[in-house]
Write a structure and sequence with these properties.
Layout (H helix, E strand, L loop, with lengths): L8 H23 L6 H14 L1 H9 L4 H10 L2 E2 H21 L4 H20 L2 E2 L13
Parallel strand pairs: 1-2
Amino acid sequence: MDIRPVTDPLRSLLYVAGGWACLGLAFVGAILPVIPTTPFVLVASWCFYRGSPRIHAWLHRSRWFGPTLDDWHHYHGIRRRLKHRAMLMVLAVVVATFFFNALPWYLQYLTIGLVTYGLYTIWTVPTLPDDAPRAPRTIAP
């Protein structure tokens, strides 16, 4: 699989559009714990790498996503504190949803199934200790 930046302007535009769409979904995921944030940021990074090295570098230098992208690029994992925070946020939103809404039984079971799958996915991602050294910057400022 070729992972070099593309040179065709149309393909570049499509990659950049896909990157912005994934980054938008990542922002939504930061607010709504039902949607994962990190996978969308990783896909956005890949899309930006293919379509616009300038936007790719900007994303990796960002204060919010840069350290997570560097950890993933260098260690292929996420920090324990981030993993636990994500799991707690998902559980809090689900509990609040069940408490404040009267969902039909089939939506409750569907929600429980999807949340279980999401939590399993978060749990199986390799975990970095919080005191692990910071990954070196993949994109220099």
